[in-house]
Design the sequence.
């Protein structure tokens, strides 16, 4: 049994990773909560964001944290266009069709980047990449601490947007009562696309915060997508607070699983939680009509 | 009955291939089309007729493939027995996945997610345990001879896949005719209404997932014997899961001949891709993805739907139901 001197840093590390997972999951839960669709292309779009941050840094020398003002708006536009141009048109009244289309999008995006960028793993070099912060006897990488704070700030901003702005009101109205919302003059297609765009913009933020302590490769989204699904399911579909807490839990589970079971088996813990949660809380999960 | 006659005719014509085709290259193409049709028909049983969209059919495929390979390499068990064992193991995995999801009423997106997660768990497991050869993969030793389910010429492999695929198609024909099939389609079209009429949805869906798993597993066994090499990514990776659902979606969901049309269409497309774009990693999957999106956007009833629209009469049993739900 490893003693506390190993477990505490591991838990803290898990919390910082978990905050990033939460950020990815926030976008997913927003999209699910409003559009009632599961976006299978979420991981692939995160990868697009990571490449954007990477090339801004390598080609133009833009710091990833400065890219926070560039990448999320671009991702927002991409998400808006995808929903308006492809995903929204595909349903033909069946949710399964949306599943298939987002699956198709993820396949296209991932393999196109595999074709263009090859399967190389790339990382960026920043002056602060190896800075550490000491906390409770643990040495945490500075970028991860910043990411942790950034994730919390983003969640708070998102909450403000949803509760205080007209757009937020329209989104919530459409999520609760689509027919009624349309009757009072809410442009459903536009608001759906705005929600999808916001969800994808979250991925842009996640990409900026993630890259200084992580890497990018065409398959990088893979690892995140099931984790994000797990968090969303764990926290309750459509719930922001749930996504945040779920993210932190999963981060810690992964860190401890890696500590006790080794890297490759440690991942299994996440999938098992996922399967268990999905099949053991059916009423909560099927609260929304699927 | 007319459908069965047509089915017999189609397979009889395909069965002429080894007699009229002399080049190994072309016969290999026919074998791969039959194989794709098998993988697609397996998915079609659950997805097309049952309406349960699985994103993790690799779980059954990989289990069949690994069973025959591991039994041979680790225990020296004959692959013909491995064929049966592989099918049985795939059915077992299907039963476990089906039980744990249908028992709790998971449908739609949730079902898709859980099946994907199961396939991932199996992929990670096969990557970690020693007897599957872990990440290095497992190599079935070359020992050609009909007794070893390895053939010197392509003809032998052709007859194996021809038979298994025929069995899958006859099974699906039977589903289209039988009480079980009618119940399955009723569950697909409206589960609550079907239950109200006394259909035991859980049992019907269990039957569908196990049949589906069986043929997926047999396809996996064939794959292992044909290529003699497996690794976790080939067996349990997303490529198989995607191919499984793409074939019937292209061909026509919930139709008897859809998977065959889809397999043919997919083969033509991937050959054309190779011809015009060349061999690059990932490019064929890009094309698959684009086709998937385009099919859902513009032709949700697949090639069979197109054929029936041209002939102005239903090609398969799904046609009417599909018209209703896409209206």
Sequence:
């Amino acid at each position: 049994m490893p003693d506390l001197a190993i477990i505490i840093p591991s838990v803290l590390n898990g919390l910082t990773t978990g905050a990033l997972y939460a950020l990815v999951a926030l976008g997913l839960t927003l999209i699910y909560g409003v559009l009632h669709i599961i976006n299978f292309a979420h991981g692939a779009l995160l990868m697009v964001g990571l490449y954007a941050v990477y090339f801004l840094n390598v080609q133009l020398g833009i710091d990833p944290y400065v890219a926070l003002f560039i990448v999320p708006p671009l991702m927002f536009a991409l998400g808006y266009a995808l929903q308006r141009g492809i995903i929204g048109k595909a349903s033909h009244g069946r949710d399964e069709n949306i599943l298939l289309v987002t699956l198709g999008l993820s396949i296209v995006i991932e393999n196109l980047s595999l074709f263009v960028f090859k399967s190389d793993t790339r990382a960026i070099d920043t002056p602060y990449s190896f800075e550490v912060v000491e906390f409770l006897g643990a040495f945490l990488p500075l970028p991860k601490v910043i990411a942790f704070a950034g994730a919390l700030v983003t969640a708070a901003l998102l909450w403000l947007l949803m509760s205080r702005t007209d757009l937020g009101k329209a989104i919530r109205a459409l999520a609760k009562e689509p027919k009624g919302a349309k009757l009072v003059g809410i442009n459903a297609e536009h608001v759906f696309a705005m929600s999808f765009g916001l969800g994808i913009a979250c991925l842009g933020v996640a990409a900026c915060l993630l890259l200084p302590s992580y890497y990018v490769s065409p398959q990088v989204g893979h690892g995140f997508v099931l984790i994000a699904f797990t968090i969303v399911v764990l926290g309750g579909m459509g719930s922001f607070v749930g996504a945040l807490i779920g993210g932190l839990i999963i981060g810690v589970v992964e860190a401890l699983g890696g500590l006790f079971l080794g890297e490759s088996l440690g991942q299994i813990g996440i999938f098992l939680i996922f399967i268990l949660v999905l099949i053991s809380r059916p009423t909560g999960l099927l609260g929304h009509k699927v | 009955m007319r459908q069965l006659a047509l089915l017999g005719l189609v397979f009889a014509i395909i069965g002429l291939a080894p007699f009229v085709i002399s080049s190994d290259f072309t016969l290999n193409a026919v074998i791969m089309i039959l194989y794709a049709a098998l993988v697609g028909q397996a998915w079609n049983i659950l997805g097309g007729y049952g309406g349960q969209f699985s994103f993790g059919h690799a779980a059954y495929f990989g289990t069949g493939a690994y069973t025959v390979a591991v039994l041979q390499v680790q225990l020296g068990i004959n692959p013909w027995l491995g064929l049966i064992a592989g099918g049985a193991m795939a059915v077992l995995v299907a039963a476990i996945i089906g039980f744990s999801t249908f028992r709790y009423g998971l449908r739609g997106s949730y079902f898709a997610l859980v099946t994907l997660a199961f396939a991932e768990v199996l992929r990670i497991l096969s990557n970690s345990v020693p007897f599957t050869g872990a990440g290095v993969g497992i190599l079935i030793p070359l020992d050609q001879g009909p007794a070893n389910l390895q053939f010197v010429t392509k003809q032998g492999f052709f007859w194996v896949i021809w038979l298994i695929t025929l069995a899958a198609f006859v099974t699906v024909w039977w589903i289209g005719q039988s009480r079980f099939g009618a119940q399955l389609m009723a569950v697909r079209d409206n589960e609550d209404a079907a239950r109200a009429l006394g259909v035991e949805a859980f049992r019907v869906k269990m039957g569908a997932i196990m049949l589906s798993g069986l043929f997926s597993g047999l396809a996996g066994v064939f794959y292992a014997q044909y290529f003699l090499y497996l690794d976790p990514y080939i067996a349990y990776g997303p490529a198989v899961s995607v191919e499984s659902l793409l074939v019937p979606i292209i061909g026509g969901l919930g139709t008897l001949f859809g998977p065959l049309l889809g397999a043919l269409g997919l083969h033509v497309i991937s050959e054309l891709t190779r011809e015009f774009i060349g061999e690059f990693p990932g490019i064929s999957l890009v094309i698959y993805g684009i086709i998937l999106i385009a099919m859902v956007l513009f032709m949700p009833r697949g090639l069979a739907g197109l054929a029936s629209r041209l002939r102005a009469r239903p090609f398969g049993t799904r046609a009417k139901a599909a018209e209703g739900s896409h209206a």
Remarks:
- The longest strand of chain A covers residues 132-135.
